[in-house]
Amino acid sequence: MTRPEFPGISGKSLARGVYRVQGMHYIPRMNFHILTFGCQMNVGDSQWLSRALRSRGWQETTDEQADVIIINTCSVRDKPEQKVYSLLGRLASIVRETGAFVAVGGCVAQQIGAGFWNRFPFVRLVFGTDGVAGVPQALERLASTPRLRLSLLDFSEEYVERGQDFPDASVSPSAFVTIMQGCNNFCAYCIVPYVRGRQKSRTSASIISECESLIARGAREITLLGQNVNSYGQDAGGDGLSFTQLLRRVAVLPGLARLRFVTSHPKDIAPEVVAAFGELEQLCPCLHLPMQSGSDAVLARMGRKYDRARYLDIVRRLRQARPGMVLTTDIIVGFPGETEQDFRATMDVLEEVRFERSFSFKYSDRPGVAAERMAFKVPEEVKAERLASFQARQAELTAEDLRAQEGRRVSVLLEELSKRQDEGGLSWRGREPGGRVVDIPVIDGGPDLTGALATVRISLARKHSLLGEMEGTP
Ligand code: SAH
Ligand code: SF4
Ligand code: F3S
C-alpha cells in the first residue's frame, strides 16, 4: 500500500516511504542503502541487515534514493576510522538534498557512541555489534518518529540471536554465518576486544539451523565467521561442541558444496582441525592464518602466544594433511620496537611459507590498547619502506602462484554475472576451492547460472585474479 495520510507523521524523510499495516499500526517501508567497511564479520552483519529489511518490505537502493543510509564501520586502524568521518562529511550534502537520515553501526559506533550526534546531527541511530538484531525495529521507529534518536550500544553477556525467518529475501551462493562474537585475546595492538566485547559463542543448534535455511534458499558455500573461530565453544556460550565437531556437523549438511572459516589464531588451531582438512571433502583447501610477524621477540611483545617455529610447524602439518593447501596471512610491519632484523625475520617467513596472498599493514596506534603505551615507535617512513618491500615480494609470489594455475581445470562456484571492464562484454565471477577469483567471459547472459559449480579451464593469470573458459556446469 502507498503512504496514507497519517496524522502525526510528517517530515521529508518519509516522502518516498510506503507503509504496511500491522494490527492497528502503520509500519513504514523505506528505501535503504548500506555501506560496509572492515572485516567479513561486518559484511556478515550487513548481509543479515539487508535480508531483515528486505523481508519487511524495505527496498535496497542507491545512496541518493535512500531514506536511510546505514554505515557499518571499522576501527581496526586509524585510516578506516578516519574514512568514516570523511564519508559522513560527504553524506551531509546528500542528506540535506534528500532528507534522508544516517545510521552508524559497527566498531567505530561502539567506540564513539553517541558522540556522533554532536558532530553529525543527521545521524539518528548508533548501534554496536550486539545491537544489530534490534536495528530493523529501531529504524522503523525512527522513520515514524521525527527528531527521535536511538542508540543500541550495550554489550550483552550472551550471543544475541537474530531473526532468520526471511523466506523471500534472496541469499548469495556464498553466505556467511557468524558462530561467535567478540574476542578475549587482547593482542597488544588490537582494538577488537574493546569494540566487540568478550568472546561469546552461539549455540550449534542455531548455527546449524541458519546454515540449513541459507542452503534451502540457494547458498552452496558457507563461511563460518568469528574473530577467533578455533576457540569456538571455549566460553560460557555454545552448547558443548568444539570447533572441529561443529565443522564436521556443518560439512555434511545436504546441499552444501563448500565450507570455509575465518579467522584462525595460530595458538588455537587444534590437531583435529588440521586433520579435518585431510578428511572433509567439503572443507576448502585454504586457510587464513594471521602470522603478524616472523620475529619471536615481536610476537612475544604482541602477546600472540606462539613463536615462529610453532607457526611453521602448523603450516607443515596443514600442507601434509591437504596437498595444495592455500595459505593467506595478515602482517603488521613497524610494531613498536621492531628492528631491521625483526623485519628480516618476517621476510624470511614469507620466503619459507610463500603465502598465496596476504594483507599487510603499517602498525597504527589505537586508543587504549597496550602497544599505544610502548616505547620505540617506528618512524612513519621506516614503516612505509618495510611495507613496500613486503608487498612487492608478496606481489611476485602471488603472480607466480596465479601463473602456476594456467592450464588447470578447476571447479568454480558462480556468484555473479557482471559487465567486463575491458570490451564491455559479460563475465561470470566466482572462486575456485583455494579462494582464487576466476572470471569467465561469456558471449551473452544465457541461462542464470548463479550458484552453479562450473568446470573451468584456466586460460590466463592476471594480476590479482584468473581468467577461465567454461567447460561444463552440472
Ligand atoms: N581476529 C583476527 C584479526 C582481526 S583484525 C586475528 O586474530 O587474526 C585484522 C588484522 O588487522 C589483524 O590480523 C592485524 O594484522 C591487523 N591489525 C589489527 N590491529 C592493528 C593495528 N593497530 N595496526 C595495524 N594493523 C592492525
Ligand atoms: Fe585482535 Fe588478537 Fe583478537 Fe585477533 S585475536 S581480534 S588480533 S585481539
Ligand atoms: Fe574492523 Fe571491527 Fe572487523 S574493528 S576488522 S570491523 S571487528
TrEMBL record:
What this protein catalyses is: N(6)-dimethylallyladenosine(37) in tRNA + (sulfur carrier)-SH + AH2 + 2 S-adenosyl-L-methionine = 2-methylsulfanyl-N(6)-dimethylallyladenosine(37) in tRNA + (sulfur carrier)-H + 5'-deoxyadenosine + L-methionine + A + S-adenosyl-L-homocysteine + 2 H(+)
Which positions bind [4Fe-4S] cluster 1?
A: C39, C74, C107
Cofactor(s) the protein requires to work: [4Fe-4S] cluster
Entry GO terms, CC: cytosol
User: Which CDD domains would you find in this protein's record?
Assistant: Radical_SAM
Domain MTTase N-terminal, first and last residues per copy: 30-144
- Major location, coarse class? cytoplasm
Span of domain Radical SAM core: 169-400
Top enzyme class: transferase
UniProt cross-references to InterPro entries, sorted A to Z = Elp3/MiaA/NifB-like_rSAM (IPR006638), Methylthiotransferase (IPR005839), Methylthiotransferase_CS (IPR020612), Methylthiotransferase_N (IPR013848), Methylthiotransferase_N_sf (IPR038135), MiaB_methiolase (IPR006463), rSAM (IPR007197), rSAM_horseshoe (IPR023404)
Signal peptide residues are none
What EC designation does it have? 2.8.4.3
Record's PANTHER family? CDK5 REGULATORY SUBUNIT-ASSOCIATED PROTEIN 1, MITOCHONDRIAL TRNA METHYLTHIOTRANSFERASE CDK5RAP1
- Which family, according to UniProt? Belongs to the methylthiotransferase family. MiaB subfamily.
**What's its job?**
Catalyzes the methylthiolation of N6-(dimethylallyl)adenosine (i(6)A), leading to the formation of 2-methylthio-N6-(dimethylallyl)adenosine (ms(2)i(6)A) at position 37 in tRNAs that read codons beginning with uridine.
Q: What is this protein called?
A: tRNA-2-methylthio-N(6)-dimethylallyladenosine synthase
- Biological source species: Desulfocurvibacter africanus subsp. africanus str. Walvis Bay
Identify the gene encoding this protein.
miaB
